[in-house]
Specification:
Length: about 110
């Protein structure tokens, strides 16, 4: 895969994230916890892929907009909410914090 293909795949994937985050939040609020947890796992795996692709892109001189520290803060908040089984809080974090973060990257 060449640099342009990696950049294209990276941004195509990032562009899909807000829709997935809204899906997670909606399922948590509808008490479809198992579905939401499965999607949270997919989100987590996706973040791992994004970080790997970002390293490759940076090695090739492509600047990406992901703020790893901010993302880690969000993931920590999500984990805390999940540990407390406060699914409304987790839904709010996804919808009102993480989703705008990714929408900003897309813009």
């Amino acid at each position: 895969m060449d640099k342009l293909e990696i950049v294209d795949e990276y941004y195509k994937y990032v562009a899909k994230i807000p829709t997935g985050l809204q899906y997670i939040a909606d399922n948590l609020r509808a008490d479809n916890v198992q579905t939401a947890l499965s999607e949270i796992l997919n989100f987590s795996e996706g973040i791992t892929w994004i970080k790997q692709m970002e390293e490759i892109l940076m090695e090739q001189g492509v600047n990406v907009d992901l703020n790893k520290h901010q993302l880690e803060d969000y993931l920590n908040l999500i984990n805390e909410g999940l540990e407390k089984q406060d699914f409304v809080l987790v839904a709010d974090i996804f919808e009102y914090e993480v989703m705008p973060y990714f929408e900003q990257i897309i813009a």
